[in-house]
Design brief:
heterodimer, A: alpha/beta, 9 helices, 14% strand, B: alpha/beta, TIM Barrel, 8-stranded parallel β-sheet, 8 strands
């Protein structure tokens, strides 16, 4: 039977946001996690504050520690950005933000950047917002292609967005944009919340499924692995049966973990090791 | 509601997936005259806000007969930190609040809410405390010139490592000693610190100029685990005469934000002052 292996697992810095970037990188070394998906947000890497020299210094910090950057994930939701906003000025600010982050992806030395769809006002029909999301993603995918970068579109949860929140909508957006530099990804919490299955994702997306966030939830929550109710062992088996060879990032994000990030990271790694053993 | 002297204000943060006009209209229909404005995108993004946009907002508020009692720029999830170690981030953050004071003034609002920022948790807090104090001094000085009260709020340990409780909040106010730097008490960090309003009034007394009332995890009043009615009794007992803003932030309230406020108001309507408080 096919198995996911530990070398496909990557660590992530979102729940280390109260600590310095150096602290996070040292922790990845300490917990023997060579793969990193880097969240781009304050205080680790906020694109608006970054000079190219600072980005280069972050790349060197990772190289020095023999850490491999598997994906760069600029903060999508917390800041004042929304690529599907009906307000032209907000849309422009958001496009500029993500265009700059594509440059940063290249400077960091990776070829993958995570994206989400933005959102429309919840009391309005989604047609207009969907159109803006499609146009923005098209612009970004064209820029990414020039730079040799692939954007990974991640579904959001309904409290975050009313556009791409399940695998059908993800497939629809990928088809609507229809650019080689825009692929899909699977976040296990968003999947469970939408009542989709791993099989749905692989059947609908096929070879367009490029990345996975491995995370627990109830079903929402982005909890440490083992803290939620999701059948992670079963998910990992299913993922393996589809011959998935990409990375699975431990995207721990609940604020409850912010003051003890290492403990929660280690717990998740140990839990996944137990499943894969 | 009867037998108490404070007034209730509404707030727009959980309307962030809806236009600001929906919030303002809801305040009119729910007959809440006083509002506290969360300033964040898409409602009002301080960094990009133009004079024209602010003037339009002033008219939108005035035309509806509403009264803006406090401006609360987003500063917990935005990359804003007045205690930042990086000088450029700290400078940007100070400017964010200086511009927020200008916007407050243009909106004819006499109060601005602020948090202390934070230091890295893998470093000692001494230097971050100093940076926070220096930033607050600059902001308070400008507030003095503009006759605006800046109200400082404690934060839970998962949000900041500088001011977790009323004692540390008092220490900061005493170190700065500005007549325009006062305190706001939010029931969530208050409860997280194991404190009650009685503790806060003992430490801060009349420096408490504002109150954020929220149930646990900033949920709708009555849907969490905090002793809201006991808190209201305490406010009555301490003869608090300022505003009490119902601050709702929980993620599940973005779908039906008006209903969340209605439920909170219904919960407040059931409150009657206990005899012990009088």
């Amino acid at each position: 039977m096919k198995k996911i292996v530990m070398s496909q697992i990557s660590g992530m810095n979102l729940h280390y946001m109260l600590y310095s970037l150096d602290y996070f990188l040292d922790e990845m070394v300490k917990y023997e996690m060579p793969n990193v998906e880097l969240w781009g947000g304050y205080p680790h890497l906020y694109s608006e504050d970054m000079t190219p020299a600072q980005v280069t210094s972050i790349r060197k910090k990772m190289e020095k520690r023999d850490l491999q950057l598997v994906c760069y994930t600029p903060e999508q939701l917390m800041y004042a950005n929304n690529i599907a906003a009906p307000e032209a000025d907000i849309r422009k600010r958001s496009l500029d933000y993500f265009l700059k982050n594509i440059e940063i992806t290249a400077e960091l030395g990776t070829d993958r950047m995570l994206m989400t769809s933005g959102w429309g006002y919840y009391h309005e029909p989604i047609d207009e917002a969907w159109k803006y999301a499609r146009e923005s993603l098209t612009t970004l995918a064209e820029k990414a292609e020039e730079k040799g970068i692939t954007l990974l579109l991640e579904p959001l949860q309904p409290f975050e967005s009313n556009l791409v929140t399940n695998v059908k909508e993800l497939k629809q957006m990928l088809d609507d944009v229809n650019k080689p530099a825009l692929k899909g990804m699977l976040d296990l919490v968003a999947m469970a919340v939408a009542k989709d299955t791993v099989t749905d994702y692989f059947r609908l997306l096929g070879d367009q499924l490029w990345h996975i966030h491995l995370i627990d939830g109830k079903p929402s929550g982005h909890l440490a692995c083992g803290d939620g109710t999701l059948p992670l062992s079963q998910y990992l088996d299913e993922i393996a049966q589809f011959n998935y060879t990409g990375f699975l990032s431990l995207e721990i994000a609940s604020t409850a973990y912010y003051t003890r990030p290492g403990q929660e990271f280690k717990k998740s790694v140990d839990y996944v090791k137990g499943i894969l053993a | 509601m009867t037998h108490h002297s404070f007034q209730i204000a509404g707030m727009n943060e959980h309307f962030k997936r809806h236009p600001l006009s929906m919030f303002l209209d809801a305040m009119v229909s729910l007959e809440i005259e006083s509002i506290e404005l969360w300033a964040g995108s898409p409602h009002l993004y301080v960094e990009d806000a133009s004079v024209q946009e602010v003037e339009k907002l002033r008219r939108d508020i005035q035309e509806r007969g509403l009264h803006l009692i406090c401006l609360t720029p987003e500063q917990c999830i935005y990359p804003i930190n007045i205690a930042a170690k990086e000088p450029e981030v700290r400078q940007k953050s100070i400017e964010y609040f200086l511009k927020s004071l200008e916007i407050s003034s243009a909106l004819e609002c006499k109060m601005l809410q602020i948090v202390p920022g934070k230091g890295y948790y893998d470093e000692s807090t001494g230097e971050a405390w100093k940076r926070s104090r220096e930033s607050l001094e600059i902001i308070a000085k400008k507030a003095e010139q503009m006759s605006i009260s800046v109200v400082l709020e404690a934060l839970e340990k998962k949000e900041s490592n500088l001011i977790p409780d009323s004692l540390s909040l008092k220490k900061m106010l005493e170190e700065i000693k500005s007549p325009n730097l006062k305190a706001v008490v939010d029931t969530c960090p208050m409860a997280a610190a194991g404190e009650s309003f009685t503790d806060c009034f003992r430490e801060l007394g009349s420096d408490i100029k504002h109150v954020h009332l929220a149930d646990s995890f900033h949920s709708v009043l009555g849907e969490g685990t905090l002793p809201i009615y006991q808190y209201l009794d305490e406010l009555t007992k301490h003869n608090y005469k300022g505003f009490v803003t119902v601050e709702i932030v929980g993620r599940n309230y973005v779908f039906e934000p008006v209903k969340a406020i209605q439920k909170s108001l219904a919960y407040l309507d059931q409150y009657t002052v206990s005899k012990a408080a009088l």
